């Protein structure tokens, strides 16, 4: 499961679609609707939010906005909390840099034409607030 901290606008098609699917799975886990993935480390930051379902709802809503801007049709009825306020989940500069490097490596293999669209400095998704620090403790480099 990769729930990108990066802004959805810099995700290539494969990353955006996969993040949507995995975000929906994360929402199901956070709602108690499945027994699998309950201990997945990337869910820690959503669980730490004041309202985890609002947090994942905001995250999914931002992915859907980007998908819509690109002409994709992500089913918004699948988001449990559509109008959730931004939860401001902290994400470190180090984590964003790590994810950008990870995305860059994946894009180089599957869609090299997308590489010029990747920024030099990682941009955070609107669900997150950037703070100082290295790679997050939950990351599995």
> Could you say how many structural domains there are in total?
1
| Strand fraction | 5-15%
Separate helix tally: 4
How many strands? 2
The major sheet is characterized as: 2 strands, parallel
Spatial order of the strands forming the largest sheet: 1-2
Which oligomerization state do the chains in this entry correspond to? single chain
- If you average the pLDDT, what whole number results? 94
Choose one word for the global shape. Answer: globular
Q: Secondary-structure element order, as H and E?
A: HHHEHE
Measured distance between first and last alpha carbons: 13 Å
Description:
The protein has 141 residues and is mainly α. The chain has one domain. It has four helices and two strands. The protein has a two-stranded parallel sheet. Helix 4 (93-110) links the parallel strand 1 (89-92) and strand 2. Helix 1 (13-30) runs antiparallel to helix 3. The protein is globular, with a radius of gyration of 14 Å. It starts with 12 loop residues before the first helix and ends in a 10-residue tail after the last strand.
Summarize the structure.
This protein is mostly helical. Helices cover 41% and strands 6% of the residues.
Topology of this structure?
Elements: H1 13-30, H2 44-47, H3 52-69, E1 89-92, H4 93-110, E2 128-131
Parallel strand pairs: 1-2
Helix pairs in contact: 1-3
